[in-house]
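Box 3.1 — From sequence to structure: F-box domain-containing protein
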Amino acid sequence: MAAPPPPELVDDAVAEILLRVPPSDPAILARASAVCKSWRRVLSDPVFPRRYRAFHHGSPPPLLGFLRSSHHHARKAGGTAMFVPVETHAPFLEPTFRCAPLDCRHGRVLLDTVGGKKGTLAVWDPSTGDHELLPEPDGGGPCCRSRSGVVLCAAAAGCDDNHHHRDCHGGRPYRVVFVGNTGDRDMVARAWVYSSEAAEWTPPASLLIDAYSSIERKRAAIVGNKVYFLLTIRMGARVAILKYDLGEHRLSTIRSPLEYSKDAVVLMSMEDGLLGLAGIIGSTLELWLRKVDSEGVAVWEQYRVIELQKLLHIDRPYHRADVIGFAESVGVLLVGVDAMIFMFELRSGQVRRLSKPGHCYDVFPFTKFYVPDFTRSKLQFPAEPFQGS
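Predicted structure (token representation):
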């Protein structure tokens, strides 16, 4: 006579097990939901996501993956934003319309829904597929050929005590900062701010800049209430920084520490409330901080120099190396070397190679405490994962 099956775990015990699943790999929870009805019942409880985030209180949102364009010139060739998971499959749907990513922050993605010169902006939640098209800003916003932006949580009290935006769900309220200029000979940079609560844009802030300047589509850095965008001067002859002050609604520029190529530099928001910059010259990765000296003057200070071949353990010559992104919540720098992508953890010094090749000139890290919605009839797993080596 066959032995009776072991008794099922009570729901409280199942929940205690599932709460300990690493937040860096939400697909584990999706697979756990298929184990049996009782496990799915626990995961489908609307209380579970709140308990899960509370259990991992104190930890920053994990890096789930990053957004990149399916074509380097997506704004011209009709590409779309692609979500690339870091660990295993992530149940995120890709947009169904032509677009290019401009920013990922607080569970939201800012998309440029480019369709020639009449492109507009959208805020997209990858975890639900929902998106909201924004109205056009006054003063030439949709005609800006050179453009970038950021999307910010606008919750009055923040989403949690540690400002990790653990409870951001990708919806409202949010703000969008959009910057641009209309052409090569346009010597004026403009900035607008959109509020989802007011459903309107502010009048533009303006700043005279050099002719043939371009606001790059690399991810901006946010330090306090300042937003920093990468700016190339005189058709890429040198790199500068366009600074937007949210409190004063004012633009200004900052010189970069060295003459980096636009593809070889990213701006960074550092833990100590400072603006950072990572740049590559030749085979050397250089890290900088912008500090205030004893006379009250803001200056660049180089604090680290790293030989790329030693860091990345590359045993052959390479054609080019670019810094393509930075995830400040986890302190990870993304470096592209030819068709390879490496993740470099600044604090630990650990390096991980992502094995799937592909040229990337800029990527937008996506961090979020994500629990799949098990109340839906179907979970999507559209993208193959990058497997680290």
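Summary of the box: Confidence is low (pLDDT under 50) at residues 72-78, 160-164, 377-389.
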